[in-house]
Design brief:
Layout: E1 11-12, H1 20-26, H2 32-38, E2 45-54, H3 58-64, E3 72-81, E4 84-94, H4 114-117, E5 124-125, E6 129-134, H5 138-146, E7 153-163, E8 166-174, H6 176-179
């Protein structure tokens, strides 16, 4: 497993030239798990790959205004089902986010982030930043160790969710099977 992640090159959404079919998934504002269900995928499994306190990557620190020496809760998961591998996701929870009722995010286990997040009435989501991961990119290599992928490019997005003035950064790498769903 590759632990020293080199940052993807994140761009504002209009700068990324991705296929139209991919763009529909990448720009979807709602719950990824709900969208899978709408496409007939009822029994997705969330495999927790990492759930630990560590220093976020520099751009994650910057976007969440986390000081360099501060740790955050980092959660990485693989979302899959019997018929496909759907997504690799990395979530950064700053310490100050995990207070009061938001402490429940510490105990997500194999539940989806969206199962709690999208229930907040004041939920806000930033604009997406996008990335195209090539085979030489660290994140692409990490995912290739988890699932068999033939694609030379993987499409990713990230956004900041804000609830009760608390921020959560979610980076999502869409695996090729998801684009076959239509």
């Amino acid at each position: 497993m590759i632990d020293n992640l080199i940052e993807p090159q994140w761009l504002i959404k209009d700068c990324l030239d991705c296929p139209e079919k991919s763009r529909e998934w990448l720009l979807h504002q709602g719950s990824f798990m709900e969208r899978l269900k709408q496409h007939g995928i009822q029994h997705s499994e969330i495999i927790v790959l990492k759930h630990t306190w560590e220093h976020p990557l520099p751009s994650e620190q910057k976007i969440l205004t986390i000081k360099t020496h501060e740790e955050a809760l980092v959660r990485e998961v693989l979302i899959k089902s019997a018929v496909g591998n759907w997504m690799f996701a990395r979530t950064i929870f700053p310490k100050e986010t995990l207070t009061e009722t938001e402490r429940q995010f510490i105990h997500l286990e194999n539940n989806s982030l969206g199962s709690i997040l999208f229930n907040y009435p004041d939920l806000q989501r930033s604009e997406f930043e996008m990335a195209c991961l090539q085979q030489h990119d660290t994140w692409h290599q990490k995912i290739a160790q988890l699932v068999a992928i033939q694609d030379k490019k993987l499409w990713a997005r990230r956004s900041v969710f804000t609830i009760r003035n608390k921020a959560i950064l979610l980076s999502e790498v869409f695996l090729p099977d998801v684009f076959l769903l239509g």
